[in-house]
Specification:
This protein is an all-alpha fold. Helices cover 78% and strands 2% of the residues. Strands 1-2 form a two-stranded antiparallel sheet.
Length: 171
């Protein structure tokens, strides 16, 4: 199992165990305990870049997102401030490792995420809905769903290309 999936499963199990005991553990405590669980189950995970990035990104989100969101509360709508807080928190904590591992960092990704995350969610939800409606309608819905999903897909590709062309920080 991928380290990020192990992390998510361990965090869910640990958080639920805390709730069953009547506790409300802080996210960073659950993350730290999950790291211990993952390393007990899969000691070699320490060398996996996915393990390192997953834990660093989530630590950045848990520790920085509330502060960033609060700071932006008067300037941006709450949902936008929260999304930016998540993106910036994750990027700040993973920045050194990404730069070391890949030789470049693209800070513009935080801004790109503000567009790509909701569009991706819409695309996935639309695809799931189209699959169900297609099964029920015997394929009759494809004439509508395929062009709509095609527009969303093209938007995702276009936004990725646009932000991908922005220079990053390179070693």
């Amino acid at each position: 199992m991928a380290p990020s999936l192990l992390r998510a499963a361990a965090m869910a199990a640990l958080a639920q165990a805390g709730r069953l005991r009547g506790e409300r553990p802080r996210g960073i405590e659950v993350l730290a305990a999950a790291a211990i669980v993952v390393l007990i189950l899969e000691p070699s995970a320490t060398t996996a870049l996915s393990f390192q990035l997953s834990f660093l990104a989530l630590a950045g989100i848990l520790l920085l997102c509330p502060r960033i969101t609060l700071h932006l509360s008067g300037m941006l709508p709450p949902a936008l401030g929260g999304a930016l807080g998540v993106a910036v928190g994750a990027q700040l904590f993973t920045f050194p490792l990404v730069l070391h591992s890949f030789g470049a960092v693209r800070p513009v990704g935080a801004v790109a995420g503000l567009l790509l995350i909701p569009l991706t969610a819409l695309f996935l939800l639309g695809g799931a809905l189209a699959t169900v409606v297609d099964a029920v309608s015997g394929g009759a819905s494809r004439a509508v769903s395929e062009p709509l999903l095609g527009v969303l897909y093209s938007a995702l590709v276009g936004i990725n290309r646009m932000f991908g062309a922005v220079p990053g920080i390179e070693l």
